[in-house]
Amino acid sequence: MVKDSASIDASFHLSLLQMYKLDLAPDPKEIAAIEARKNREKERQCRFFNVQNRIMGVDVEALNSQVEERKIREAVERSNDMAYDTKHAHYDLVAQMLEKEEAERACRLSKRVQDFREQRQQLKNEHEFDFCDPNQLYELPASYYDRESYFGPASMQYFLGEDLERESRLKMQQEQFRYNLDQQLQEQQAARDEEARAALLSDQLRLAVDTRAAELARLEESCKAAMRTAMANANKAQAAKQALLQRLEQQQQQEANLTEIKKQITSDLLTENPQAAQHPHAPHRVLPYCWKGMTPEQRAAIRKTQEIQRQEKKEQRQAEKSMEAEWGRQTINLAEAALELEEQEKELCAEFRRGLGSFNQELAREQQTQQNYLNSIIYTNQPTAQYFLQFNTTSR
Q: Angle at the Cα of 165 (from 162 to 169), degrees rounded to 5?
């Protein structure tokens, strides 16, 4: 019966497992989530149970290293920017110099071209024959008909490349050449005449300038001579005036010196007048720069005053000695009284220490009795290390 019941229970459990599918494998996602929670809990415990991180809050070394890296990166960026700015300024300066040089070169070239045109390509110097110029000497005769269009190619009257007016054209060119040659000769002669006229005018101008310069030099020399004469006369007059002024000044100085000598001889300084040393506003004071010394009466009064002061000083010293003796006696009496008080204080302290010792012994006996009572009756169940290990096992 027991075996049958066991088989029945096994079959029942098997049917339950098949019905509710309890024998399925665990879900990998759920296992991964559980492991992730466990790992997070471990990390949280490490973070919470680490005293340094809990007190300081963050990793200071990592932050400092990040700050240093940032400073280095900013310094490198600033140096790169400065180098770029320097190069940019240098390139700008070079570009400006090149542009300026190119502009100057173009200006010089245009100026040279313009000078060449003005000097070499003037209208009066051209020698070409302009067929369209109505001012020329010769004009080409206008054809009264167009040979090619009039006769046509089949008339055998006009051929391609044929020059029917060669003689007239050569004659006209020769005449034009003679005309141009005559024109050039005339222009050259006119240029020579112009140069001779310019040279003559230049010589006349130079002669006039030299004549004017010589005349101005003579006038300047005469003016300088007149100025020297006038300056010499003025200097002589000024010298005479200066000599007269010096003589008058010397005479006045001599008179002033004589007056000063007389005044000093008859003054209170040399006569040693005692009244001159009296102060005008304070009769008890004297003037130091006029005082010649004290009179015998003044000296006697000073000695009398000094004798009186010596007597007073002597009496004062005797009084001080008697006062010091009295203070000495009082000091001795106070010292004796202090010794007596010190002896009494020592006796009182010894008696107090004896009473305090007996009181402390009694108190120690009472505390020992109380401690024995606590250890033997109250605190019988002492906590072990296992009791303290149950704390701080989770971060929640």
A: 125
Residue holding tokens 């000296």? 299
Domain boundaries, the chain: 12-98, 327-359
Name the pLDDT band for 155 (thresholds 50, 70, 90). low
Please report the DSSP string for 138-168 in residue order.
--PPPPSS-HHHHH-GGGSS--TT--TTHHH
Specify the pTM. Answer: 0.23
Which is more confidently placed, 227 or 9?
227
392 residue type, one letter: N
CA–CA separation, 284 and 288 (whole Å): 13
pLDDT the model gives residue 262: 82
286 vs 266: CA distance, rounded Å:
21
Instruction: Using alpha carbons only, give the angle 192, 203, 188 rounded to the nearest 5 degrees.
Output: 5
Q: What are the backbone dihedrals phi and psi of residue 223, each rounded to the nearest 5 degrees, phi first?
A: -65, -40
Phi-psi region of 115 (alpha: psi -120 to 50; beta: other; left: phi over 0): alpha
Q: Can you tell me which residue has the tokens 């320097």?
A: 86
Amino acid letter, 237 = A
What's the number of CA atoms in the CB half-sphere (13 Å) around residue 332? 5
Which sign does the torsion angle of CA 307, 313, 316, 321 carry?
Answer: negative
User: Contact 368/18 with Cβ under 8 angstroms?
Assistant: no
Find all residues with CB under 8 Å of 163, minimum gap 6, and list them.
169
**What's the one-letter identity of residue 48?**
F
6-20 burial code (b ≥16 CB/10 A, e <16): eeeeeeeeeeeeeee
**Cβ proximity of 137 and 98 under 8 Å:** no
| DSSP code, position 128 | -
